[in-house]
Amino acid sequence: MAGNSFGQLFKLTTFGESHGKALGGVIDGCPAGIVLDLDKIQEELNRRKPGQSAIVTQRKEPDTVEIYSGIFEGKTTGTPIGFAIHNTNQKSKDYSHIKDSYRPSHADYVYDIKYGFRDYRGGGRSSARETASRVVAGAIAKQFLSDIKINAFVSQVGAMKLDKPYQDLDFSKIESNAVRCPDTEMAQKMEDYIKSIKKEGDTIGGVITCVIQNVPIGLGEPVFDKLHARLGEAMLSINAVKGFEYGSGFAGVAMKGSEHNDAFNTDGTTKTNRSGGIQGGISNGMDIYFSVAFKPVATVLQSYETINKEGEKVTTQGKGRHDPCVVPRAVPIVEAMAALVLADYSLLARTNKI
Amino acid sequence: MAGNSFGQLFKLTTFGESHGKALGGVIDGCPAGIVLDLDKIQEELNRRKPGQSAIVTQRKEPDTVEIYSGIFEGKTTGTPIGFAIHNTNQKSKDYSHIKDSYRPSHADYVYDIKYGFRDYRGGGRSSARETASRVVAGAIAKQFLSDIKINAFVSQVGAMKLDKPYQDLDFSKIESNAVRCPDTEMAQKMEDYIKSIKKEGDTIGGVITCVIQNVPIGLGEPVFDKLHARLGEAMLSINAVKGFEYGSGFAGVAMKGSEHNDAFNTDGTTKTNRSGGIQGGISNGMDIYFSVAFKPVATVLQSYETINKEGEKVTTQGKGRHDPCVVPRAVPIVEAMAALVLADYSLLARTNKI
Amino acid sequence: MAGNSFGQLFKLTTFGESHGKALGGVIDGCPAGIVLDLDKIQEELNRRKPGQSAIVTQRKEPDTVEIYSGIFEGKTTGTPIGFAIHNTNQKSKDYSHIKDSYRPSHADYVYDIKYGFRDYRGGGRSSARETASRVVAGAIAKQFLSDIKINAFVSQVGAMKLDKPYQDLDFSKIESNAVRCPDTEMAQKMEDYIKSIKKEGDTIGGVITCVIQNVPIGLGEPVFDKLHARLGEAMLSINAVKGFEYGSGFAGVAMKGSEHNDAFNTDGTTKTNRSGGIQGGISNGMDIYFSVAFKPVATVLQSYETINKEGEKVTTQGKGRHDPCVVPRAVPIVEAMAALVLADYSLLARTNKI
Amino acid sequence: MAGNSFGQLFKLTTFGESHGKALGGVIDGCPAGIVLDLDKIQEELNRRKPGQSAIVTQRKEPDTVEIYSGIFEGKTTGTPIGFAIHNTNQKSKDYSHIKDSYRPSHADYVYDIKYGFRDYRGGGRSSARETASRVVAGAIAKQFLSDIKINAFVSQVGAMKLDKPYQDLDFSKIESNAVRCPDTEMAQKMEDYIKSIKKEGDTIGGVITCVIQNVPIGLGEPVFDKLHARLGEAMLSINAVKGFEYGSGFAGVAMKGSEHNDAFNTDGTTKTNRSGGIQGGISNGMDIYFSVAFKPVATVLQSYETINKEGEKVTTQGKGRHDPCVVPRAVPIVEAMAALVLADYSLLARTNKI
């Protein structure tokens, strides 16, 4: 209710602040009998962790997950899976210079008004560090989904846009570069660009595209809980996200119905897929694909003017360890959230018919 | 759970099919003591109802709402508000030609797989007719919110885009034309265009922009239930929606952090508003604005090829009473959903602090 | 959230006041494909309706249910089932004498404090008339459950207690008398007693026992949502209920573990059933049985002293049409709530394992 | 959903098995600004912990709680409070003798059917060890409630019943004896009796009574979420509970309405309190009191016959470290659950009126 849970039947609740003792969560509703590969969970965390390349934040965190419950003799038991990731490299002192001022386009100010206090240590709960817990849960959801394949990748950095249909991309290349763009040539350009932005002490936005394959027909609930509505909510809940579109998206607006409609093949598949794998909020068995827009990170390592708690102007020098561009590390987060949505709706779909 | 409820504290549950006896819903959690103007509820319904102009569907429905409970001596009582809108102009026969075939880019096929049956009468529950119930609830939510002003309008039809900042628009003009575009010149062009599309028996997409003003600071829950995540879910749950963006949206991706950040004024307001009135998922008191992309309506009044239940190819002639462009009638729906989100989060915000 | 919904997957939301236009509700999550016998729904309502015998309230209500949605060609569609029961025999004037005073042991006073107003017309939402909607939903749940048999009956009126194990009772006799006690001899005594109480203008309490047979093993969720915890909540939510016990109940307290334990047969059934068909919150396949205590109705047709809104003493004469003993009409309500719990947990149980 | 969460606005989710690495939970929705006394949390845990006296289980667990998040500079922050209690004294070998057999009146058998596996180590998730997490959360809820006083105590052990009205008891004596009965004479008898039962290798049931004072008027939601319905659910969710009654309870059944009604004083209080502080599901400002029946613990240290997984008869000797009577250690659990309910409804009550 207070916003720290996601999902209804496969449900994740997370806790933890950027500079607290530990982050973690509880997965409730994970079915019994899944043979869990714990290494795969850690691998997903490693894809998200800081310090993995030159174009991400240099905070050094091993991000090792400890699982406390819900697994017995290698399998899930159907009971809640509690887990924690202990913080080890908090440098709260890095934040003492902003203790009394509000950083622009951060949540500092609204937290103070809403809660009557502010955890100035790296943004506290508003930090994207929280998403580590989502990646753990998503890695478990992926193992539950097994047949469903979820691939996210960076399709845009700043104005640099990968203008190829996803069908022409080789997803096995996603992890071959620091940007996580499957087109290695474009990846190199993006990486160079991010490095130049970083040198300026500045940041830049980006887009992640996600493709979900082998989805059974029938996932999603009509009306308010349409599959894409939940996917959209999931993506928009990730830090720095400003937009979501699926299938033909915003570009589809300019099309006529006669052009936009996906004609059926006799087996129920469609010749085109402008629908993005979802009709009326329910998966139709075609690939689901969507894009997620991330704004540039608000923390710039430059001097800027802002206000303090007393409403006085102050000039501050941005410092600390930050991502110049959030999308490379956000790829596993997008996948994790997609996996959580699909796991939840997979369970829900079991209840549709007598 | 099965997707027919929206909201947590101010909660709407809807029921009803396009050609059933009645549509309606229950609002649970509406606080006691609101002096309700019932005429305003009907006015909102009238904005959505079919047959209101030459560019919308010609189905003739009075869409008169009956309120069964929850109001006593002119005020809300805090008990659930049950209501119904009786269908009077169902022409289910209009649909007999598609009884055995699946319309492309409609929910026919996935309903049949998911539920083992299909209500061919106008799409049954998957019809946008369901949104009438949302408009009723939204009209009540608006009266609860009172000070908060919600204005949605059509900002794009096909490729025709209103390229002015919303601050330069006169919202009082929105209702002055059939398209619901506040720029009357552009509105005329859009209307002409929709008429020409209609003449072709075709349909076209569009974009609705929504601006919410006078929002108190502090609405929205961190992490999963960010204010914009819920707004996005709300909008994506409206029929035919393919995308959502708020603040700088997809365009913000190409900006640098130093350009994108909204510098503070000493009173806590910001000089720019690329954030779209929301920081870290929490309203910051600036205007909230977002855009919603609608695909072209799938029902075209042309001949098309599709498949039947046996998986055989069939040729069908589209007929019935349909909207050539959904956005004019979707304006009050967007407002209604925004109002429901804000009402819900307004109540939730009462619980943040001791 | 505001307390007008019950269930998670098979979910009922109700609306309506004692003297409003209509009562009703929405069932969300009822699976598609149930062949619904609408007459059976009305029959259950008839078991609850006023005026059915000399020992219940003489308000004359046909309690005819109208179903608005969710059923197509005789079967449930998986979409929400909306329904209403129009009030026809409101005599709000009967209540004008208590408009300004608070009836003892009624909800008048707390409603006024909580909501800042009071619907004096028959208790408004706090009236047990709301339970008519539960009976409709329960009747649908029963048809979904099909194999599971739910039988409730009156086991105590005042101090008169039916002291036979339920196995010795003939459930087919429950409907043979106005009290709904399967022991016809005891039923006659109870009926005579209720009549004598009525003559005094007084009321009396009672106990309903419910037996659920043919329950599959595995319904119920461990920890907070134990099957008996939800059953208890369901029963305690019925007007006038003061207590709930299942299996050995309060009497089991005085037993030793060695006496109380239910030894297994080799087929997994147990030789005794002090557990009441539930182990660790999960059904074990044995009969579930529980008892529900109802207090005497608070409205007595006698003169009594109370206070008015100004906190002044006033003397009032009880009048109106009231039940001298609530248990005969509460039997179908207990069954309905049990059916709703079981339907909900039946769906939930589909999600336990991969 | 899967039953490991409790509450709606002040919400606890727990995880952990009897012999796993750690137990713990997340409290979501705790308001910001509560000055938390961490010692008080540990004190409540100490009241529940094993090994505290001769009449409870001799498992040696320090039950030290680690809080991971949600507290900053001594106050709650409004963000989720994650916590863990590491298990240190698991003796899973104690259970190897029952690895392949089902203990009577335990959850072993139903878990195996429901989940397709069984955690034989001390009952796994079905163990009452889970309630340690509830006590942590309850201790925090108590500090939020501050003015509301919750006192639970043992009122019956076996057939030995404390037959005094709670008004005549001195709650400050509850912690003065191992049984937690405020009547020290009766406490001694109960203690002696439990010791004799223990010597037999047997167990015995008991009753806990709980009194809640200084409750504001207006807590509780009408209809399904009545305050006593939620309290009942909360209590019935505690391991070994078989019954719940509040106010006049089962005994009130035999009273006439004219005797049972609580007449008002002019200040809105009532002369008697058979209602148990709740009218129509809403607190009326009088003391709330209720009783909870606990069955005898199923594990007896005697030889017994049961079945194994193959459905064969086996004879087993009960062993391990177990409570001969569960009620002394359950007192803080009852209080904790009551505190959680009241905290939840206190927040909800903020949303009733405009």
TrEMBL record, chains A, B, C, D:
<dbReference type="GO" id="GO:0004107">
    <property type="term" value="F:chorismate synthase activity"/>
</dbReference>
<comment type="subunit">
    <text>Homotetramer.</text>
</comment>
<keyword id="KW-0057">Aromatic amino acid biosynthesis</keyword>
<comment type="similarity">
    <text>Belongs to the chorismate synthase family.</text>
</comment>
<dbReference type="InterPro" id="IPR035904">
    <property type="entry name" value="Chorismate_synth_AroC_sf"/>
</dbReference>
<keyword id="KW-0288">FMN</keyword>
<dbReference type="InterPro" id="IPR020541">
    <property type="entry name" value="Chorismate_synthase_CS"/>
</dbReference>
<comment type="pathway">
    <text>Metabolic intermediate biosynthesis; chorismate biosynthesis; chorismate from D-erythrose 4-phosphate and phosphoenolpyruvate: step 7/7.</text>
</comment>
<feature type="binding site">
    <location>
        <begin position="295"/>
        <end position="299"/>
    </location>
    <ligand>
        <name>FMN</name>
    </ligand>
</feature>
<dbReference type="GO" id="GO:0009073">
    <property type="term" value="P:aromatic amino acid family biosynthetic process"/>
</dbReference>
<dbReference type="GO" id="GO:0009423">
    <property type="term" value="P:chorismate biosynthetic process"/>
</dbReference>
<dbReference type="GO" id="GO:0008652">
    <property type="term" value="P:amino acid biosynthetic process"/>
</dbReference>
<feature type="binding site">
    <location>
        <begin position="239"/>
        <end position="240"/>
    </location>
    <ligand>
        <name>FMN</name>
    </ligand>
</feature>
<keyword id="KW-0274">FAD</keyword>
<keyword id="KW-0456">Lyase</keyword>
<keyword id="KW-0285">Flavoprotein</keyword>
<dbReference type="Pfam" id="PF01264">
    <property type="entry name" value="Chorismate_synt"/>
</dbReference>
<feature type="binding site">
    <location>
        <position position="48"/>
    </location>
    <ligand>
        <name>NADP(+)</name>
    </ligand>
</feature>
<dbReference type="InterPro" id="IPR000453">
    <property type="entry name" value="Chorismate_synth"/>
</dbReference>
<protein>
    <recommendedName>
        <fullName>Chorismate synthase</fullName>
        <ecNumber>4.2.3.5</ecNumber>
    </recommendedName>
</protein>
<comment type="function">
    <text>This reaction introduces a second double bond into the aromatic ring system.</text>
</comment>
<keyword id="KW-0521">NADP</keyword>
<dbReference type="GO" id="GO:0005829">
    <property type="term" value="C:cytosol"/>
</dbReference>
<feature type="binding site">
    <location>
        <begin position="125"/>
        <end position="127"/>
    </location>
    <ligand>
        <name>FMN</name>
    </ligand>
</feature>
<keyword id="KW-0028">Amino-acid biosynthesis</keyword>
<dbReference type="GO" id="GO:0010181">
    <property type="term" value="F:FMN binding"/>
</dbReference>
<feature type="binding site">
    <location>
        <position position="280"/>
    </location>
    <ligand>
        <name>FMN</name>
    </ligand>
</feature>
<feature type="binding site">
    <location>
        <position position="321"/>
    </location>
    <ligand>
        <name>FMN</name>
    </ligand>
</feature>
